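Hey,
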Amino acid sequence: MPSIPTVLFICQHNAGRSQLAAALLEHLAGDRFTAKSAGLSPAEEVNPAVAATVAELGMDITDRLPRAVTPGDLEAADVVVLMKPGLALPSAPRGEVLEWSFPNPEAWDADAVRPLRDAVSHKIKTTFLAR
């Protein structure tokens, strides 16, 4: 039986884009992938606007804590997705590396984050669910 690929989403603070992407991959792909997220300089909590837009899909991520990416994370991941191009990682990833770019929301409130959520959702569908 083939193993389930691990996808690691990385952003600066592990509070917005990477948390959003991991939750969306879980939501859209079910058990086809293991979704993880981390950041380079973790924030104290998941961005409330991101959590609110994910809650609209029926998922509660308010209890998730931002965390720092480790060399072990990068070694374990089959795919590493940088949610902003050019992020400086603590070590070289073992797996495939993808660099995604999304415009910043005009504000970090739910109304402004929904287009980001929808763009990340579309990217996940075309990148992972089309495989």
